[in-house]
Amino acid sequence: MNLVQYNHLPEGLLERPASSLYKQLDGPTLIHIPGEIETPLFISVLQHGNENTGWEAVRRLLKGYSNAKQLPRSISLLIGNVQAARFNRRRLDEQLDFNRCWPTSKPGEEKSELHKVFREVLEVMRVKKPFAAIDIHNNTGQNPHYAAINRLDNKFFHLAKLFSDTVVYFTIPEGVLSNAFADICPAITLECGLAGDTHGTDHSLAYLELLLRLKALNNTPVKDIGLFHMVATVKVAPGLEIGFNGSQCDLVLPPELDHLNFQEIPSNTTFGSVRKGLSRPLITTDMHGMDVTNRYFRIQANQVLTTRPVMPSMLTVNERVIRQDCLCYLMERMDPTQSSNRRDEPLPEPTGLDAVGVKTI
Ligand SMILES: [Zn+2]
Predict the structure, then answer these.
(1) pLDDT 10s digits, 132-184
(2) What CATH number does the domain located at 4-222 have?
(3) Of 64, 228, 268, 304, which sees the most CB atoms within 10 A?
(4) Cα of 359 to ligand 1 centre, how many Å?
(5) How far is the CA of 104 from the centre of ligand 1 (A)?
């Protein structure tokens, strides 16, 4: 596998939906399009083949500049997994997950051909000193749009805030694009809701347009963002019957519990009721697998109540998912003014979970 590069937009490419890009591109392709400001904005689309919002936004963006109208700033566009996009899949069975293959090891120690290709992308872009790097994704649940970063740094906060007031800081999983680019320039992963939702395309298009015109990123402290990091996983204790409103089960969950996703909820929010005498219906573990149930939940008058402000994600009322996976993940608020510009972050890190519990990034 080789990285293919172009110094212009290949003719006809913008006419293609993600599912037919494979007819024109063989694999990961890096396209440099000149603009008035030479320093490029790096944009990545289709790291996951079924997440087409980024490509749809870029198509619309570039069509607006097709008649000899110059871009305000150069763009370096990486088009990722066109083979998986053909079949509307995240990746094909025989493929690695593209957004886990950005090299974290030293040059020459890449684990796969794809790691080598992405190393080459990084080295090409390092020379070009990008203004910022934007990796555009979708997710599967009904989550709001949000921005995710891998550095606690003012410029990263500002880059994120221009997209969303909700910012998620993550360090796991390894091998994601935004983390690799964070060594080169301010970098961000955008989560744009469900693929195919035009609101996600409109939002990312407006964001890219704004960045192309922006002269510099602010490096001052940011106060007014909601910065969250992942702290715990919540499971239902093994062997308990789970029911929903009105049923006579060990644990009865409110049927609209999933409406709390990505809501910052105060202490004493109910997660349901329990059969009398049950003291630990939910088991909560931190990123190291330690039991921290008492830090987040208590029982009072047979109600399961939160003990501190948290923001759940992936909350589900699907019993099968609850049993196979978990009830939810918990995030906690961080103060961006206390955490900016720290590169060696001592926070507990998630293990074995995708990024922020939304299983997408
Ligand atoms: Zn993705």
Answers:
(1) 999 999 876 567 899 999 999 999 999 999 999 999 998 767 899 999 999 99
(2) 3.40.630.10
(3) 228
(4) 8
(5) 19
